[in-house]
Every structure is written in C-alpha cells, then in structure tokens.
Write a structure and sequence with these properties.
The chain has 266 residues and is mainly β. Helices cover 9% and strands 35% of the residues. Bound molecules: zinc ion. It holds the Pfam family Peptidase_M23_N.
C-alpha cells in the first residue's frame, strides 16, 4: 500500500522526505540534504567546513545545509573516503516588496555600513564555529513562539523598490512582549543589538547547527548560558529593520542559512 505522502511525492507535489528524528530532506538552495553514510565515512566537509554527522545508531547521516546561493546542479561534499555528490533541484522562491520608513535601512550611511560589517563578522564567526554535540540523537525542534506564519524563507526582497539580500529566516508575526523560547536545547553563543537584526540571540545546538532570534524587544539570556528546550530566551519586538512586530527565526547548518520549517514535523 502506498501512503498518501508517497503518492504525493510520486506526483511531484511534495519534494521532501523525512527520516524519523531528523530534519526533512529538501535538496534545493536553502534546503537540507539528509544523506545516509556508508560505515567507513565518519567525516564530511563542504568548502573546508565540517558538516554535521549524526551519532551511529544503526545508520549514520550527514545533515548538510545547502547555501541559498547554490545554483541548480550537482554539488560535491568531501569525506574521509569517497566524495559524495548531491543533486540540487530548482525551486522558485516568491518575491516580496516592503516599505520601510527609515531610508537608512535601504541605503545605510558609511558609519552604519561600518557597524554592519563588524556585526556581520561577529555573527559569521558564530556560524562557522563547530563544537562537539551535547546530544546522542539529533535534537527535536519545536516552534519558538506562537503565531500563524506563511512561508517567508528565501523570498527575494525589495526594500522601497531596491533589491536586497533574500530572506534568510522564517517570520512569525506576534505581538510585542510575547515569549520566545529555545526550540531545542543549546548554549547561548551570542547576544547583541544589531543594525538590521535588532536585539538578537544566537544558540549553538552543536556541530555547526545554530539558531537565531531577531527583532526582540527584550533579551532574557546571556552569553555562555545553557538552555533547555522551552526555556524563555527573550520577548517578541520590532527592533532593527522591520515593518511590524514579529519574530525572525533563522537556522544555520555548516554556515548555510536553511529553511527553519524543515526542522518542524510536517
Ligand atoms: Zn525576517
């Protein structure tokens, strides 16, 4: 018997699959490849950066974040054995036109660009870090705050008519002051009040898996703090470049920003 999910997949209506406990496999720019490894493969790298590898139970997997800038076609990962090739499929992200009142957020002044460069480096150092996992099984993720959301990851964005970087996270509209919780256990590796992202918390979940929470009105944690799943990290706000109150939730794997929805059960 074919399941409904299998039938939809055969019809090409959905293109994701899921191994129990792991993110959904969706091989597109901004997606994730969940790759079963042969027994002799213990290390996987992409562009010199280590890729997350799950602990061996009966089967070990590489969980690889596909950068948003990846062209359609074949991509190669290095391992301690044979290279692995994966096929990156075409995926059309929607466009979004936004109007912000403060023109500095569209064309920042030199001092603001300098500030942004410092902040980008700080965040990049976190995204490229690779710490030992504190888990035996890949962490299960829950939603960081309540609220209805649409599929906003990857959107091509135009601010006041000018094209800017694609949207690297998922926006959850919510009222100012609503609690934001850690979607999985981890360690707070960064907090800041950034030019574009506003008040922000970054959590390291191990092996280059980093989550990010932006535009907060208040930060309730500090750097180095251990968080359990469900612990409050801050409150929803509208700090930084926003058009209204919401939580921006970002997920990064091997320094690639990927669609946070792939971590939630479908
Ligand atoms: Zn956002």
């Amino acid at each position: 018997m074919l399941s409904i999910k299998k039938i939809l997949m055969l019809c090409g209506l959905i293109t994701t699959t899921q191994v129990f406990g792991l993110p959904q496999d969706s091989r597109r720019a901004g997606g994730i490849a969940v790759i079963p490894l042969t027994q002799n493969v213990t290390e996987v790298k992409y562009n010199g950066l280590p890729v997350l590898v799950t602990q061996p139970n009966s089967q070990r997997y590489a969980v690889f974040g596909i950068p948003l800038s990846t062209p359609v076609g074949t991509l190669e990962l290095q391992t301690n054995s044979q290279p692995i090739q994966i096929e990156v499929k075409d995926y059309k992200y929607a466009q979004q036109r936004l109007t912000v009142k403060n023109q500095d957020y569209v064309n920042p002044k030199q001092e603001q660009l300098d500030r942004y460069a410092r902040e980008a480096k700080e965040q990049n150092d976190i995204y490229t870090s690779f710490t030992a996992a504190q888990w035996a099984d890949f962490p299960h993720f829950i939603r960081p705050t309540a609220g209805k959301f649409s599929n906003s990851f990857g959107r091509k964005r135009f601010f006041n008519g000018e094209e800017r970087a694609p949207h690297s996270g998922l926006d959850i509209p919510a009222p100012v002051g609503q609690k934001v919780i850690a979607p999985a256990a981890g360690i707070v590796v960064g907090t800041g009040d950034y030019f574009f992202n506003g008040k922000t918390v970054l959590i390291d979940h191990g092996q280059g898996l980093i989550s990010m929470f932006c535009h907060l009105s208040q930060i309730k944690v500090s750097k180095g703090q251990k968080l359990s799943q469900g612990e409050v990290l801050g409150l929803v706000g509208k700090t930084g470049r926003v058009t209204g109150a919401h939580l921006h939730w970002g997920m990064s794997l091997n320094n690639a920003r990927v669609d946070p929805q792939l971590f939630l059960s479908p």
